Amino acid sequence: xxxxxxxxxxxELEEDMVDFLLEQDDxxxxxxxxxxxxxEAGAWHLVExxxxxxxxxxxxxxxxxxxxxxLIDSLSVSVGKDIYFYELPVRREGHLR
Length: 97
Prior knowledge:
Blueprint: E1 2-10, H1 14-23, E2 31-37, H2 46-51, E3 54-64, H3 68-78, E4 83-90
Antiparallel strand pairs: 1-3, 1-4, 2-3
C-alpha cells in the first residue's frame, strides 16, 4: 500500500529538505511548491501577523506506507523541527501517456 506524505516547512528549511529527500533511496521523486499558512499566529513575525499569512514550502511524496514512520522519525534530526506533516492513503497512481 502507498501513502501520500505531505510536509509543510518554513522557507529556511527548503534546501535542507530538498537535499534530504533526494538522498532517500526509498523515494523516487517528490513535488514541492510555495504555499501560505494561516492560523496559529503565536510565533509569527510582525509582517506575518499583519498580513494573516506565513510563507511556507510544501512537499508531496508518494511512497510505501510502511516507510513513512521511518522518514518522519529522521526529519527532525536531519532537517529541522518547523515541519508539519500529514499522511493520506493512495488508492491509485500512474502516468497517462
